[in-house]
Amino acid sequence: xxxxxxxxxxxxxxxxxxxxxxxxxxxxxxxxxxxxxxxxxxxxxxxxxxxxxxxxxxxxxxxxxxxxxxxxxxxxxxxxxxxxxxxxxxxxxxxxxxxxxxxxx
Length: 105
Known about the structure:
With 105 residues, the chain is mainly α. It is 86% helix and 0% strand. This is ABC transmembrane type-1 domain-containing protein. It comes from Bracon brevicornis.
């Protein structure tokens, strides 16, 4: 532990790089594990199939239920599009940022 503290004190210039590296590794581990869970989990597969099959017009009792479902489905779709675009933009900016730092220096 003592030598670990000395390492960080001696390399205080590179602490932001170390933190960025650790956060990137943790992000990759998280995304990979979620993809594997979604791919190989039988329970999630059953839930998705059930939800997909039950969203037919004859399963709704009234037109009001259909409208409520469609309203929330559209909100969910728009939120998914927004989040996807935000993540792509953030990742692109994250990887292009060093280019700006290099060209300015």
